[in-house]
Design brief:
330 residues, Adenylosuccinate Synthetase, Chain A, domain 1, 10-stranded mixed sheet, 11 helices, 16 strands, globular, binds guanosine-5'-triphosphate, binds inosinic acid, binds magnesium ion
Length: 330
């Protein structure tokens, strides 16, 4: 089996959805499994002019015929899951592990009402309270929700039997409960080891770890962000973004925070980086599919990333579409 794990190297929203959709279309995995926290995530995938906004189902849904799985570590809001399955026609293709934790209305209400959630600036999706309940062993699993019965499976069994596996992480390194800027973090670790544990994949099965970074830095929610610009200044640079789940404006640093990225590459044991939105930083890169097509200043930036991290930039995003990519992996 060959397994590729994709994780975020900054504060989430690095464009993992786009990289995953490219890998799903190009590498043709037979199984795609998602780890990470839960429906606090938001991913956007664009293909053939159609836009998909996803929170729970795997971003690799464009891969024809691949089984789409959600690992035991992922918290499930049944309404979000069922809506996505129906909206994207995933009936019979998308399943979750029977050990997944159920997010209840109480968890969502608690996340919305808690003063600490407000201080952190959580997504109010109930993820923190559901993760706490799981740790306290008071949570229900998805087996207690009749609407989910036909979507339950044994994810570790399927993942370990896969010939070619694509593993999806969510959030990003700096939101890791262990390694990010605690307490302004999400409710669990978000690095490659935990993403693998989420789906029941042991460490010896992993071939590639691709860590996704955006060509600049954004953060949504509270907590420190070095080099933060005003919304107006970020608008001027074309870098101002808004959250997919909450619609909140994202905070922007137009550069990269090198010490954080280097640590993220080490702890994730990344053997490739994927750099997205190079065309936002250097508009002349738009839709390039060959490295040779890039202007000198963009190549210099890619070389700087490789020099500072010691990791090869294997994929470069040059536009919103899944195929707007330069693939430099061997
Ligand atoms: P993840 O949470 O990491 O999956 O990212 P996201 O989907 O939350 O990021 P965002 O909400 O910013 O959405 C990404 C949008 O930017 C999608 O419409 C993508 O198609 C688009 N995008 C991703 N990579 C690139 C890129 O390299 N260039 C451009 N111009 N757009 C990109
Ligand atoms: P929670 O995960 O909803 O508890 O939120 C905790 C922190 O993580 C907040 O700052 C959120 O904005 C942030 N966060 C959680 N998930 C994502 C994500 O997918 N993208 C970006 N930020 C996220
Ligand atoms: Mg996102």
């Amino acid at each position: 089996m060959s397994a590729t794990v994709v994780v975020g190297g900054q504060y989430g929203d690095e464009g993992k959805g786009k990289i995953l959709s490219y890998l799903a279309l190009h590498d043709r995995p037979d199984v795609i499994a998602r780890g990470g926290v839960g429906p606090n995530a938001g991913h956007q995938v664009v293909h053939g002019g159609k836009k998909y906004s996803l929170r729970l189902v795997p971003s690799g849904l464009l891969a024809p015929g691949a089984r789409l799985l959600i690992g035991a570590g992922v918290l499930i809001n049944p309404d979000v899951f069922l809506k996505e399955v129906s909206e994207f026609g995933l009936e019979g293709r998308c399943f979750m592990d029977r050990r997944c934790t159920l997010i209840t209305k109480e968890h969502i209400d608690a996340d919305a009402a808690s003063a600490n959630s407000a201080k952190i600036g959580t997504t109010k999706t109930g993820c923190g309270p559901a993760a706490s309940a799981r740790a306290a062993r008071t949570a229900a699993t998805v087996e207690s929700e009749p609407r989910l019965e036909k979507y339950l499976t044994d994810v570790p069994g399927e993942v370990n039997a896969a010939k070619s596996l694509l593993v999806e992480g969510t959030q990003g390194f700096m939101l890791s409960n262990l390694y990010g800027g605690y307490p302004y973090v999400t409710s669990k670790d978000t690095t490659a080891s935990t993403i693998c544990a989420d789906i029941g994949l042991g460490p010896r099965k992993v071939k590639d770890v691709i860590m996704v970074i955006k060509a600049y830095t954004t953060r949504v929610g509270a907590g420190p962000l070095a080099g933060e610009l005003s919304v107006q200044a970020a608008e001027k640079l074309g870098m101002q973004e808004y959250g997919t789940v909450t619609g909140r404006p994202r905070r922007t640093n137009p550069g990269l925070i090198w010490d954080e990225i280097k640590l993220a590459a080490d702890i994730n044991s990344a053997n490739y980086l994927a750099v997205t939105k190079l065309d936002v930083k250097f508009p002349a890169c738009a839709h390039a599919r060959k490295y040779a097509e890039l202007p000198a200043e963009a190549k210099k930036f890619i070389e700087e990333i490789e020099g500072k991290t010691g990791v090869k930039v294997g994929l470069i995003g040059t536009g919103a579409e899944a195929e707007d990519i330069i693939d430099r992996r061997q």
